[in-house]
Amino acid sequence: MLPAVLFLSVLCVGNAVAVYLLWRQKQRLEALYREQDEQHKQALKNVTRRLETYLSGSMQMGEELQELQKNLAPLPEKILRMEQKDPESLSFSQAARLVGLGATTEDLKQSCGLSQSEAELLQRLHGKK
Predict the structure, then answer these.
(1) pLDDT per residue over 14-65, tens digit each?
(2) Domain segments of the chain: what residues?
(3) String of b and e for 55-90 (b: at least 16 CB within 10 Å)?
């Protein structure tokens, strides 16, 4: 009877040690899980903040583009009216075509009656890069 009791005692102590070791490993894994969970939450906050910044910038850019579009919409009509007021002089669109064909600033000044700054502007806008 004594060997059986001794065997059972050793078995109980062994089980207790095994349970303790498993409990310690569970504690370590829970701590690791909490640490990784906190890192994931922080990364998610960072990504969310960056996305909000990106969206805010995109919305602001969209509003500015709409404002520009609203400001530029009447320009073709204004250019047409300007061309119709002075049919004797070449229009800016015709001067731009000349630049595309290789006209110099001097050519533009002489043939279109443009100022030096207007001719240079057309060269920069429509000239070959």
Answers:
(1) 999 999 999 999 999 999 999 999 999 999 999 999 999 999 999 999 999 9
(2) 30-73, 75-129
(3) eeeeeeeeeeeeeeeeeeeeeeeeeeeeeeeeeeeb
